[in-house]
Queue: 2 jobs
Job 1
Amino acid sequence: MDRKDWMGLLARAPADLLDRLWRGVNMAPAFRWLRAPEVGGVMVQGRAGGTGAPFNLGEMTVTRCALVLEGGAVGHAYVQGRDKRQAEQAALVDALMQGPEAGHLRAAVLEPLLAEVQARAGLRAAKAAATKVEFFTLVRGDD
Amino acid sequence: MYVAVKGGERAIENAHAWLAEERRGDPAVPELSVAQIRAQMALAVNRVMAEGSLYDPDLAALAIKQARGDLIEAVFLIRAYRTTLPRFGSSRPVETADMRCDRRISATFKDAPGGQVLGPTFDYTHRLLDFKLAAEGEVPPAPRADTQPGAVPHITDFLNRDGLIQTEEPSNAAPPDLTRQPLEFPANRALRLQALTRGDEGFVLGLAYSTQRGYARNHAFVGELRIGRVPVEMEVPELGFTIQIGEVELTECETVNQFAGSKTEPAQFTRGYGLVFGQTERKAISMALVDRALRWRELGEDDLGAPAQDEEFVLSHCDNIQATGFLEHIKLPHYVDFQSELELVRRLRAEAAAGKEAAE
């Protein structure tokens, strides 16, 4: 899991789960805000016909922040929704993942988070699979 | 014209207090939570997100609660909130081919690769009221099945491989944004798609239906309808790379329409496209039909004078917030306007009466 992967995971993670896992690691690193959490919008684009020219579909809410740890590591977060605590925790994880705590955080926060996100997606996929139509051909009489 | 009128403050305050009480309803009945609306009124939430043009299910649920279930009022609240948000940027165009589909059907190919997946649909229900829902009760878990790995390609991809359908030319042109610049005509397709995806479901449905009934008929098949979640990615300048910033649920409809062709170019199917926030398939199909009707000029078709072909008519009237704003303002005080009209009518009547007397 590289930085791009964990930032994406933290962006879409359920905020309550991230909060529980973050509290579980019991870390309270000193940091300074480079950009305090702020809520804003991102314009989501689609493509005409799925593959053609881009068009503006509508906005989504996003919360972002940036911070620097005492050791100098900079953490960024862009998370979906309006949860400033999630953004702060995501930025802290991002910063700590660049230091010696990376292995611990990966095992205690990122991997359980990924497992949960994948389990939720897998459950929906399994329910969808159960609604797949199995066509069969009716046999007509001799002709 | 209307002028400021003073003197109604107390009446307004009391009206709003009563509104709050009516919104709450009978205190003996438990209050609805925003989480309940989000989870159990999900399709209303989706509509408010689509027409409010802001993907945030919690906010949409709150707006529905505040609006007492009036969805256009809820859309209004979301649009007003949206204008307070700083814009962090634009996403990369979402890749609907990578959608994790809850539903995916084709009306044109029975054996589409990836299969026909019905998902949580109202289709094939009998539309009989289910009185069991009036009582509280547990719902049995939905059945599950093993998933098969493999891509779920767009149906139009394999039509396109044989050249049977018109190609959507990829481009990276920055699209116009009607939330930033006022609508101008003629509008390009990107601007039309933006207006349609946030347009009023009822209005877009009515226009789509008009094309089916013969007003600029274009013989649409639903080549594919898919509903599911796609990742949203954005390039973050301070990082210098692209990250996923979340995921959105979308409904996409691709129609396969009657062909165009000429002596020099072989016959080819044409396309209409609908893409809408949330599980909103009626809207997505409607959008695709209207998109197709509006493309008459670029596809070299005749202007039949049908409402669904008239982009100025369609785009100027599909926004329910603009429409309701202008419509509802006429109930606000117009005392001075009306006074002048009243005086005019009285004078005309007096003049007519005087003329009649003089003649006699």
Job 2
Amino acid sequence: MPWATLLVALAAVLSRAGPGWEDGLVLERAVASAQAWRFWTGHLVHVSSGHLGWNIAVFGAAGGWLEMLAPRAVRLYLLWAPPVIGAAIFAVDQEIGRYAGLSGIAAGLVVALALTQLTRREESRPLWAAVLGLVAVKILYETMSGSAVLTEGFRPVPTAHIAGGIAGCILFGFIARRRRSLADLPPVG
Amino acid sequence: MLRDSPRRSERSSSVVDFLYPGQTEPVVTPGVPVLRLPLRVGVAFVPAAASRGVLPSGGISEQQKSLLLGRVANEFKGRQFIQSIEVIPSTYLRPGGGFGNLDQLRGLLSVDIVVLVSFDQVQFTQENKLSLAYWTVVGAYLFKGNRNDTHTLLEAVVYDIPSRRLLFRAPGVSEVRDTSTMVEVRERLRAASLSGFGLATDDLIRNLTSELTAFQEKVKNAAADSPVARIERRPGYSGGGAAGSWFAGGVLALLGLALFWRRRAA
């Protein structure tokens, strides 16, 4: 049972339940050092239902799948990745004052899941390579067009997906190290 | 009592008269506007010229103008690339004030983009055959012997004040047709005038929304060597990580296929 993924998804949905809750939870540069919890809660906040819906769909599918394959590693990832990704965004993108969204963490889970499945013989390698390719295309597209678009909603932050992708590679490293053979991972599906 | 020619009244304001007073050919400044996100926007009616015609002037009061502009502002307030939209009272604009006046607004109200709304409203009233009953005096109270038409055009132009460049424009039109008794003409024309402005504002909001979308596409798709506008971000701007529909759809489809493939292989 991928309970950690479900818990985070539920928390993200609940963060939109109350008016003004976002202001207390969003990752904000000015107060982040004094209110460190925002490094975790900021990823749960979303600016619109569409933003929440698509992020939860990717996070739930990839996170749920990977948590069933490597529960301990994914649960640890959900603890360490949010502050690491948040800190990376603030360090690289000096203009960003506020950050919100689960997709950085979700990108990491997608990358880790694809890398894990690519190393297993019984899985379709072209399909999982395509998943990695899709993540690369998304990052490239955002990096090239993000600064030129009056974005409906908010400014996309490619750094979040790049940092998420790197965090996903580290997560894959943990999973690979803990298992002597990735082929020993339990089958899902 | 039956007249052949309609009586007519016209009220209007002109963006060109406001921005380029006394100039026959408006001067267009070359250069690329720099839009600093999130945008600070002001929206105002340009000062109106005196009304012309034989009908009593209906027109639109400052309060009504403010309400109409408030509706336009509310429609665009939710957009995250807009920091604020100020409704600017007409008293802040001088007839023929030009860009000098806009520069003053920029300093006073901290707006970089201004939406200038001009209007042209023409009202006609013409007696129909029922107006013959007006000869009976009582008929002027009972029979709707007047046909009243109100045509309204609103035109919004969106200017970047620092670069003096027109970003985009959008029209809003309405037509109100009505009949009335002779004694009601004045009252009905006044009501039709207001109703015409309201309907034209609805149309203007729709057109502004689609023109804004088209402008966003133009900015996005413009060639690097001839940009429509340069986009910069103010420090502290909000951002986020979004999977987005195409990426999320793609990932879900691929995961679904992988699951299907896994089950078939098993």
